[in-house]
Design brief:
With 411 residues, the chain is mainly alpha-helical. The chain has one domain: Proton glutamate symport protein, CATH 1.10.3860. Helix content is 81%, strand content 0%.
Length: 411
């Protein structure tokens, strides 16, 4: 049985068992919740403790690697510029469109209230929004260690970004052990997260038991809405890439659809952009006429550094949670979330989906002042939106490569 299946079963069984305990209304049985709640909270805390060191180490090594890659050739540099532009535009679209959708079609109030009630035992205080002037001055941390202790993700991301670029300017004999240290931190954190995710079915069951007991089946409506919204965002990225590639890459819709289809089939079955790479390489050359040199540089680089659905979907997740909790998101909160979403997507792209889900959304939540407790429930159903994430990613990889090829004539 796969890890995703075990986590989903933990969610379903926990919700059902909690609702059944509430239906029985027996004080002796209901006391079980007082023992399972701490287990769920411990599991949440175990995931949270890995976020800051993993994100910082990944960003430093990822930015340094990307900068070195761009310095090796014009094709790689063009590809990185295209990737960055697409990530920013996708994130900008998310912070505009997702709140508009939630305003027009809000989550049913009773479903939102059920979720809040179910997770009330693990709720954390929501920091109040700060004025624009103060927000700007906080972007550069006066004390990165203090920012890490406070979970101030935007200043930490800016520090890691600058640190990574600065590392590329020092001598190789000094740079290698420095980046080696941070790579060792990454590998260590991944092992630790692997242990935490191994017991995820237990943690999710403990959390879901409390949610089911306090809210019954009421939370199911909010989870169902979440699945539809996140799947729509991932599918939207895929659909938008067709006209974008036609306009910027000068490729007909039919031709691009024919080229993307084989990689999309692999993406659906494997939920892996890396597994789709051979199909993308073949289609890029045979269907789109992209040279072997351009395809051989741009596509592997896209799979390594570019995941176009990450910023919009991760932002949509946090905005959805804010909507459920009734947290107002101002311009500064949305801007902070957008910056963190774009930058962190570069460092987390090659990680498994279960790791990227929590590691990429928690920093955005911290930056935007949104509670993170609901993420521990949503991770159990991420397997469905992840299909649409992967479809959007492989389609964007191929489309971006076609655009890079058009701007690399004769190469």
């Amino acid at each position: 049985m796969s890890s995703s299946t075990r986590i989903v079963l933990g969610l379903v069984v926990g919700l059902g068992a909690g609702a059944f305990l509430a239906f029985l209304n027996q004080p002796a049985l209901s006391a079980v919740i007082s023992y399972t709640d701490p287990v769920g909270t411990l599991w949440i805390n175990a995931l949270r403790m890995t976020v800051v060191p993993l994100v910082i180490a990944l960003l430093i090594t990822g930015i340094a690697s990307a900068a070195e890659t761009a310095a090796t050739g014009r094709i790689a540099a063009r590809a990185l510029v295209v990737f960055a532009a697409f990530l920013v535009l996708a994130a900008l679209a998310a912070i505009i469109l997702v709140p508009a959708v939630l305003s027009l079609w809000p989550v049913r109030p009773e479903a939102a209230a059920a979720v809040r009630a179910g997770l009330s035992h693990a709720a954390t205080a929501i920091p109040p929004p700060v004025p624009l002037g103060e927000w700007v001055t906080r972007i550069i941390p006066t004390n990165p260690i203090g920012a890490a202790a406070e979970g101030a993700m935007l200043p930490l991301v800016v520090f890691a970004l600058l640190f990574g670029f600065a590392a590329t300017r020092i001598e190789m004999k000094v740079r290698a052990p420095l980046l080696g240290f941070f790579q060792a931190v990454v590998e260590t954190m991944l092992v630790l997260i692997g242990w935490v995710l191994w017991v995820a079915p237990v943690g999710v069951f403990a959390l879901a038991l409390g949610v089911g007991f306090r809210s019954g089946a009421g939370a199911a409506g909010a989870v169902g809405y979440y699945l539809v919204l996140m799947s729509a965002v991932g599918a939207g990225v895929m659909i938008v890439m067709y006209p974008v590639t036609m306009l910027l890459g000068r490729v007909s819709l039919v031709r691009f659809a024919r080229a993307a289809a084989p990689a999309q089939v692999v993406a659906i079955s494997t939920q892996s952009s890396l597994a789709s790479l051979p199909a993308m390489l073949t289609s890029a050359q045979s269907e789109l006429g992209i040279s072997r040199r351009v395809a051989g540089i741009a596509l592997p680089l896209a799979v390594s550094l570019f995941r176009m659905t990450s910023p919009p979907v991760n932002l949509a997740i946090v905005i959805f949670i804010a909507h459920v909790y009734g947290v107002h998101l101002g311009v500064t909160q949305l801007a902070a979330g957008m910056i963190v979403a774009v930058v962190t997507s570069l460092g987390l792209v090659s990680l498994p989906s279960q790791i990227t889900f929590f590691t990429s959304t928690v920093p955005i939540s911290f930056a935007m002042g949104v509670p993170t407790e609901m993420l521990s429930i949503l991770i159990a159903v991420e397997v469905i939106p992840d299909i649409f994430r992967t479809l959007g990613n492989v389609t964007a990889d191929l489309g971006a490569t076609a655009i890079v090829a058009r701007r690399s004539p004769g190469e």
